[in-house]
Design a protein that fits this description.
CATH superfamily of the largest domain: GntR ligand-binding domain-like
Number of domains: 2
Radius of gyration: 19 Å
CATH architecture of the largest domain: Up-down Bundle
Strand order of the largest sheet: 1-3-2
Shape: elongated
Number of strands: 3
CATH topology of the largest domain: Four Helix Bundle (Hemerythrin (Met), subunit A)
InterPro entries: GntR_C, TF_FadR/GntR_C, Tscrpt_reg_HTH_GntR, WH-like_DNA-bd_sf, WH_DNA-bd_sf
Organism: Eubacterium limosum
Number of helices: 9
CATH class of the largest domain: Mainly Alpha
Protein name: GntR family transcriptional regulator
Pfam family, one: GntR
Distance between the termini: 49 Å
Helix content: over 70%
Keywords: DNA-binding, Transcription, Transcription regulation
Length: about 230
């Protein structure tokens, strides 16, 4: 009995992970209707693990129930984007300030750069690239040494990745935008390492966050108009 329970749990977790990954990569785009029957057929499983996985994703806010109990992938609104970037700016600017105030420039510049190298290596895969980019920023925020803040940022990470994948998939099909993001991040790291606070802050707030917000808003507007 225990073995059967473990197998069912493992299968449910696999189905959950597959559905969530498809949501983040926009294989299941925002607003699309999904059904237990279709998902069960796609993954070659019974409907029970799919049902449990959908319940979990609904509780996490990735799936919502609409008219006549139809199930949809949660959309992305302009308000969602603004709220996420507002939280990012608060946390990331505070993290940058802390690095300079505590004189952790040298150590943290290399910690951040370690993640940055992985980000550059993911250049041609926009999902992997954006996930690696979010890891760079999560490493920066870790300087605050606050578990609750770490959890807040972790909760934002998947939402942010989905938004950024939207930019690449519907607005920036070439790699020019990725090059801009990489160059901006490189300048932030060097500003930290060389103790140039004003330069690092400018790159973070204006070239990275503000620019990212603008691109995200354009992508969300474009996508939402497209599906209306």
């Amino acid at each position: 009995m225990k073995e059967k329970y473990k197998e069912e749990k493992s299968l449910t977790e696999q189905v959950y992970s597959k559905i969530k990954e498809r949501i983040l990569t926009l294989d299941y785009p925002p607003g699309i209707a999904i059904t237990e029957a279709n998902l069960a057929e796609e993954f070659s499983v019974s409907r029970m693990p799919v049902h449990i996985a959908i319940q979990k994703l609904t509780n996490e806010g990735w799936i919502e129930t609409g008219f006549r109990k139809k199930v949809y992938v949660k959309g992305i609104s302009v308000k969602d984007v603004r709220e996420i970037y507002e939280i990012r700016e608060i946390l990331e600017v505070k993290a940058l300030d802390t690095i300079f105030e505590k004189k952790l420039n040298w150590d943290f510049s290399f910690k951040i750069e370690e993640k940055f190298v992985r980000m550059k290596a993911s250049y041609h895969d926009y999902y992997a690239f954006e996930y690696a980019d979010s890891e760079v920023h999560r490493t920066m925020v870790s300087v605050l040494d606050n578990k609750r803040i770490d959890q807040i940022y972790l909760n934002l990470q998947d939402e942010l990745v989905r938004i950024m994948v939207l930019i690449f998939k519907y607005r920036k099909r070439d790699n020019d935008y990725a090059k801009q993001v990489i160059e901006s991040m490189r300048k932030i790291i060097m500003g930290i390492r060389e103790n140039r606070y004003d330069d690092a802050l400018y790159q973070l707030k204006n070239e990275h966050l503000a620019s990212g917000l603008e691109e995200a808003l354009e992508a969300v507007d474009f996508y939402n108009e497209r599906i209306m």
